Structure formats: structure tokens, C-alpha cells
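for the recovery benchmark. C-alpha cells below, seq after
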């Protein structure tokens, strides 16, 4: 199939592109290259807010996997206006164009749209209550897609982890592993709060499997639910490191996600575990400075936007 991947050079994007190519699909990557081109592949360099450029990139496509976004609360707060334009307005325009051209749209939203719900096991019918600009713009984008487009899949993703050619160490599992791998204490803020975790390779597999699936709708892809403290202890025991806990600095996000609908309706599988991924992340962590700004969305965007 002909597949357009926006944001195809990002943390999840390059993994999706690699998986598509391995399956023999014809892939076009559209990316602003904010984080560079880690795969060194041909890319249409462009901003998704540039409607004409993005519309042209859609020519001849069967499916678009729309990953381009300002991702994470910290990065979004650096420029809320631009975040709205990228995460919401560009998605709204793209969804209308997909409908006009009969292009299937696969869109990653976030389980953060549910907000802080510590006592609930959240399915797709649970009330939403986004608390960050990132989650608010993703939920608005969901609504735009459902209004404008008939052939779509929206996936509310849990917190990603895993090794990528455009690595991120601002994600919980990746950062914990990096700390432990180089002999630092794993710093834990709070601990009892729940969070869903899913390996980016599982997400990439699912996206590719859904290219010609006839199902549509909104689905949770949460993976496995863990307490943050359990994640830290699991990784520390694997690496022989220690955990330092600051209970008074607890992250307010606390939720568990039910992915039964996707498992039963779409037959998706969550194959990779945190234990399985620790070794490969640890090996990479020892080769780089995990604190370098390029490995953090917020820090890297702050560094490049301050120069413009």
C-alpha cells in the first residue's frame, strides 16, 4: 500500500516507518525535522500546519498515519499557540482532506485524555477530563476526526517505552533504565500512582496491521498497567541499582486503562514487556549522555526555539 507517515522521523515515527518498509509498503515521510533525520532517509520536509504542502503529500496515498505532533506536557507548554495549530488545527484539516480523497486515517491520541482517575479502570466509554494542553489538543483532534472523516482509527496510547533511533529519555521507563544502567539511583516521584505502559514496537506492529482493516472507531492501546513504584523496583532489581523516592513530589496523573475492546475487536497483541526491553535500553544508555537535550522533547524544543 501507499502510506504517508507524518512525523515519520520521531520516536515512534521512525519505528513505524521501518516496520512498514520491512512489510514492503511504499512509504512517504512528511516531517518538520525538528529532531533531525535519524534514519537518513528521503523525507518531504514540511510543517503539518502548511496545508498546501501536506495536501500535496497526500497525492496517491491509501493510508496516512498521522504522528506529527508536539508531544508531552512540557514541550506543549513552551508554545501553546503552536501546539494548538499542530496538534489540533492541522489534524482537523487533514481529516477533512482524507475524507475528500478516501484516504484511511490512523491517529495516535493519548490515554491522558482521561485525566487523573485513580479509582477507575478506564475504557473507551469512560468520561474524559484532560488536564494538560497536550491532552486537550489531542482530544479536540479526536473530535475533529470523528466529525470530518468516516474511515479512521483513533488509538489512545499508554506511555511509550523502548529503544528507538530517535531515542527519548524523558519517558518513565527509558529514563529509569538509563539511571540504573550507569549506576545512578533511580529517582522516583511519588510511586503509588498507576500508569499504562506500551512498547513502541507493539504500537508500530498494530498500526501496520490496521492499514487495510475495515474497523473504525476509538480504541485504547494501554498495554500493561503498573504502579510507577513497581516499574522502578522492577528495573532496579534487573540492573542491581537502588531507588530513591520523593513521595511529596508525586505526579498527579494516576489512571489504569482497559484495552479489552482493541484486543477483542481488532485482535491486537501486547508482546513486549518492560523486563524484555531493559537490556537493550541499558546498553544504549551506556553509550550516550542520556541527559543531553536531544533526548528530551521539552529540552530540545526549548533549545532550538530560543534561537529562532
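predicted aa per position
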Amino acid at each position: 500500500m501507499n502510506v504517508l507517515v507524518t512525523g515519520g522521523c520521531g520516536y515512534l515515527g521512525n519505528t513505524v516507518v521501518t516496520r512498514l518498509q520491512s512489510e514492503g509498503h511504499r512509504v512517504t515521510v512528511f516531517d518538520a525535522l525538528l529532531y533531525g533525520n535519524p534514519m537518513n532517509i528521503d523525507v518531504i520536509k514540511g510543517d503539518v500546519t502548511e496545508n498546501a504542502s501536506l495536501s500535496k503529500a497526500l497525492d496517491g496515498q491509501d493510508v496516512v498515519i498521522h504522528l506529527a505532533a508536539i508531544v508531552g506536557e512540557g514541550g506543549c507548554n513552551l508554545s501553546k499557540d503552536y501546539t494548538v495549530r499542530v496538534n489540533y488545527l492541522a489534524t482537523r484539516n487533514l481529516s477533512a482532506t482524507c475524507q475528500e480523497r478516501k484516504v484511511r486515517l490512523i491517529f495516535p491520541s493519548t490515554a491522558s485524555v482521561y485525566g487523573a482517575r485513580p479509582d477507575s479502570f478506564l475504557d473507551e466509554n469512560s468520561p474524559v477530563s484532560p488536564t494538560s494542553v497536550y491532552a486537550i489538543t489531542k482530544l479536540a483532534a479526536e473530535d475533529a476526526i470523528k466529525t470530518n472523516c468516516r474511515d479512521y482509527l483513533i488509538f489512545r496510547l499508554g506511555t511509550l517505552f523502548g529503544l528507538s533511533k530517535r531515542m527519548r529519555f524523558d519517558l518513565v521507563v527509558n529514563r529509569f533504565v538509563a539511571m540504573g544502567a550507569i549506576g545512578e539511583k533511580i529517582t522516583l516521584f511519588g510511586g503509588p500512582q498507576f500508569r499504562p505502559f506500551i512498547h513502541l514496537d507493539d504500537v508500530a506492529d498494530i498500526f501496520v496491521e490496521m492499514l487495510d482493516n475495515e474497523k473504525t472507531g476509538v480504541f485504547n492501546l494501554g498495554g500493561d498497567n503498573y504502579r510507577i513504584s513497581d516499574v522502578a523496583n522492577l528495573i532496579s532489581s534487573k540492573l542491581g541499582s537502588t531507588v530513591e523516592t520523593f513521595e511529596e513530589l508525586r505526579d498527579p496523573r494516576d489512571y489504569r486503562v482497559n484495552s479489552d475492546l482493541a484486543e477483542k475487536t481488532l485482535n491486537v497483541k501486547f508482546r513486549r514487556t518492560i523486563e524484555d526491553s531493559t537490556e537493550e535500553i541499558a546498553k544504549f544508555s551506556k553509550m550516550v549522555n542520556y541527559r543531553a537535550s536531544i533526548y528530551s522533547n521539552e529540552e530540545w524544543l526549548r533549545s532550538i526555539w530560543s534561537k529562532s
